[in-house]
Sequence to fold (203 residues):
Amino acid sequence: MKFAVAIDGPAAAGKGTVSKAVARHFGFAHLDTGLLYRAVGQGVLRGDDPVSVAQSLDPKQFDEAALRTPQVAQAASRVATMADVRTALLDFQRNFAAQDGGAVLDGRDIGTVILPDAQVKLFVTASAEVRAERRYLELAGKGMDVTRAGVLADVKARDDRDSSRATAPLVAAVDAVRIDTSALTIDAAVAQAIAVIEKAKRR
Ligand code: DC
Fold:
């Protein structure tokens, strides 16, 4: 059975948490496509050519902790504006989505560009302030030297860059179901997502 769930939304809206929980619930494979862009951003910080890095990625080799730093996040957001980088990552994402047993992909352009025919599209969002507070607690909890104001500025800078770029900007697909997690617990957000997918599976 081919069944693809596209989950898009801005940074720190909770889409990673929702995606992982949904994948576990339904037994689907999960791909966090942000990690692909982060790996390219990491390569650029090391002085490599972004398109060459994008063409030779091996997600099995990813060091997730090293990819989850604010520096790599900003570099990812910058390489994500490059059309050639996005093209180089396209086939990998589509092949992942086409595997038997179902797949969840989360990112910024999954429902609009990568999988326009996905069986389910969700747009998970929250206010910039709520997202910045969550990201601040996550980074501070890992012992990183961050401030609330700095994290909020970073979140807004990434929102602006991700939403205003010419190629595959962050935007909800017209047929996406919107889940605003500003005032929701994780469990409540996951329950909403599961309900949408259950309904689509019955169709
Ligand atoms: O989801 P994330 O924070 O790990 O993503 C890092 C950056 O990668 C984000 O600022 C924009 C970019 N990105 C993208 O352009 N398209 C995707 N499908 C996923 C991420």
